[in-house]
Amino acid sequence: MRRVAFLTSGGDCQALNATMRGVAKTLYNADPDTEIIGILDGYKGLMYENYKKLTPETFSGILTQGGTILGSSRQPFKNMRKPDANGMDKVLAMVNTYKKLKLDCLVILGGNGTQKTANLLREEGLNVVGLPKTIDNDIWGTDMTFGFQSAVNIATNAIDCIHTTAYSHSRVFIVEVMGHKVGWLTLHAGIAGGADVILLPEIPYDIDAVVEAIEKRAKEGKRFSILAVAEGAISKEDAALTKKELKAKLKDNPYPSVSYKIGAEIEERTGHEIRITVPGHTQRGGSPCAYDRVISSRLGAAAGELILQGKYGYMVGFRDNEIIPVPLEEVAGKLKMVDPDSSIIREAKSLGISFGTKD
Question: Is-above-0.90 flag for pTM?
């Protein structure tokens, strides 16, 4: 009889439940006596022995349910080796909980920081299988993460809804899209939503080039312009600063986010009315789209197969439309960025989309 635990860590997203369902159904179909334990609230639950037994009924009806039935929390990797407020060794506590539960494997669903900790636990001798979760799509080793396409759909819908009001009032609208340090979500939603300007962290913007793109549309008789701006977008001036210099500059920043800074600069230079829309955490909420239900089911099934085969220490990835195991040590600590020279950027530029540069 196998004894397996599930853990969801970091920010939630669509299809976490669908992915766990995929793992569970695969294990139960192979061995109905499989025992599955749910670790509550991420790594915190593993540290403080907060868990519950799950049953086949637990996974019924959750394919379409967003969020995570196990709860989640953020436990930064950089603090994992630091004792808690009571002096407890967090890593040792997690190892002890694993051993106390007599687990054969720990299935960990999460993003970059989560996978780094998963690899740390692998190094501590635990049998671990990782699954790539994040709306940011920034995990190295996989072409796609579950949750990404659902978030793209929501961000695209936000841009779609802006079109009519932007046209009606002849305004410039900025839609700020999530994505942390990378621009995948903004890039895809911007193209899908017909944004005129897309600003990404990987391509530092020149505000003069942004203004030129807006003014060019105005001269062509276009009544409005829409900018899709990544929450991590950065100007070329700020990108040239050291981390210390940038931190000091941002300390006195009067704007709540980069979109408001860009909006103020555009308004000052052009006189256009600027409106900012921030969909925020709606991009992480709601039911997973059909694409995410399929990919999460496939990833979950593949993770279940790895467990049945006794193959541990891998994250299950998605490459060239195939599911593959990727060693956790290759994933940990790496970020998958948008390549400024990639074909998708070139194609977007061919469509007339500005990325805030003068090329």
Answer: yes
